[in-house]
């Protein structure tokens, strides 16, 4: 039996032995007291990498996002974000239940935010409206497409935000997939925003954690909000040690994931009854659309499962495949031949 190929997400990545070994030799302390030197080292290194003054280790991307909203916004204020944002759709309505902010959504096409729509949604000083206190971007954008926000769009958003004195937050869960594809340093991307989070647990393959980064003042407040949510941890160096390894060894290889996803997309677009959406800059996510009338995602998913391949259902006729650390050319070949076989049965 071939080993299972799991393309449902890059969160399924498991750490290499060398990454796990770092845990055994890590210096540990009480992180709530600021005394875990491994966490302190990670936060310092991450802040430098992102060109931010300070950084904070949190348990997850969801917690980082919600802490960011809590830190930037007062209760009842408004945040503008893309309609398909993770924060808006996939965080259990924590925006209303926890951060207690209101969301205004705007259109994003191929990673490009509609500036006119953002501007139209900004409220300042009207007694009947909620005050806009944050613009929240996602880069790479949208779980299902993984497109990069073009730098010129990001710069235009920054000019607009400056005009109204509204800060910009970036949910950069897969920020390094974007930076490596653009050939632009993470710090140069983050220059355009006030705060950012990235996930250690996706393509970077660490077991736990996200990093939130911003100004010293922002991170001081965020640290308090993290604690308030029960996110304070004690010997969190066991999380930080593999995370440091991930920053040192796992970022450059994300180019392989992006390139393999591109190869996969090209091959799938040649298979009858499948279509690949084009437009935008691809990273490690491929979401094929089934064009045949007699079949759908569920049939495809069941077929692939029998072949030892897991993909994610995202629409009646669309599935998602995320390429990651455990997917190499051999796996890609198996995926293509399974899809070709499925196609030939139609
Ligand atoms: C995965 C993801 C998150 C949440 O990260 P978790 O660690 O799973 O909570 C947030 N935003 C985006 C864009 C993501 O892809």
TrEMBL record:
Enzyme Commission code: 4.1.2.49, 4.1.2.5
Name of a matching Pfam family: Beta_elim_lyase
GO cellular component: cytosol
Cofactor(s) needed by this chain: pyridoxal 5'-phosphate
This protein's UniProt keywords: Lyase, Pyridoxal phosphate
Aromatic amino acid beta-eliminating lyase/threonine aldolase domain: residues covered: 6-278
Keyword Lyase: yes
GO molecular function: L-allo-threonine aldolase activity
InterPro entries linked to this entry: ArAA_b-elim_lyase/Thr_aldolase, Low_specificity_L-TA-like, PyrdxlP-dep_Trfase, PyrdxlP-dep_Trfase_major, PyrdxlP-dep_Trfase_small
One GO term of the biological process aspect: L-threonine catabolic process
Residues with PTM N6-(pyridoxal phosphate)lysine: 202
PANTHER family cross-referenced by the UniProt entry: L-THREONINE ALDOLASE, L-THREONINE ALDOLASE-RELATED
Similarity comment: Belongs to the threonine aldolase family.
Name by which UniProt lists this protein: Threonine aldolase
Provenance organism: Jeotgalicoccus coquinae
């Amino acid at each position: 039996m071939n080993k299972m190929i799991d393309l449902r997400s890059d969160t399924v990545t498991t750490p290499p032995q060398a990454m796990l070994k770092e845990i055994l030799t890590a210096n540990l302390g009480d992180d709530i007291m600021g005394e875990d030197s491994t966490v302190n080292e990670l936060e310092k290194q991450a802040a430098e990498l992102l060109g931010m003054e300070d950084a904070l280790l949190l348990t997850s991307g969801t917690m980082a996002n919600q802490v960011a909203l809590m830190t930037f916004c007062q209760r009842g204020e408004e945040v503008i974000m893309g309609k398909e944002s993770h924060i808006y759709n996939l965080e259990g309505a924590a925006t209303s239940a926890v951060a207690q902010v209101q969301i205004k959504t705007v259109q994003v096409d191929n990673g490009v935010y509609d500036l006119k729509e953002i501007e139209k949604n900004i409220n300042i000083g009207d007694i009947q409206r909620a005050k806009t206190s944050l613009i929240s971007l996602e880069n790479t954008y949208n779980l299902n497409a993984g497109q990069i926000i073009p730098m010129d769009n990001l710069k235009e958003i920054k000019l607009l935000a400056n005009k109204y004195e509204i800060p910009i937050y970036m949910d950069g869960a897969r920020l390094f997939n974007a930076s490596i594809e653009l050939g632009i340093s993470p710090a140069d991307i983050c220059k355009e925003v006030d705060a950012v989070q990235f996930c250690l647990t996706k393509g970077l393959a660490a077991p736990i954690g996200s990093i939130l980064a911003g100004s010293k003042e922002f991170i001081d407040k965020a640290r308090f909000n993290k604690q308030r949510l029960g996110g304070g941890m004690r010997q969190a160096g066991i999380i930080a040690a593999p995370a440091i390894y991930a920053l040192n060894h796992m970022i450059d290889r994300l180019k392989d994931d992006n390139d393999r996803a591109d190869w996969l997309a090209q091959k799938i677009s040649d298979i009858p009854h499948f279509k690949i959406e084009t437009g935008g800059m691809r990273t490690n996510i491929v979401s094929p659309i089934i064009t045949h009338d007699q079949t759908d995602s569920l049939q495809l998913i069941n077929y692939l499962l029998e072949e030892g391949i897991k993909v994610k259902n995202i629409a009646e006729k669309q599935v998602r495949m995320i390429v990651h650390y455990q997917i190499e050319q051999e796996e890609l070949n198996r995926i293509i031949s399974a899809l070709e076989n499925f196609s030939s049965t139609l």
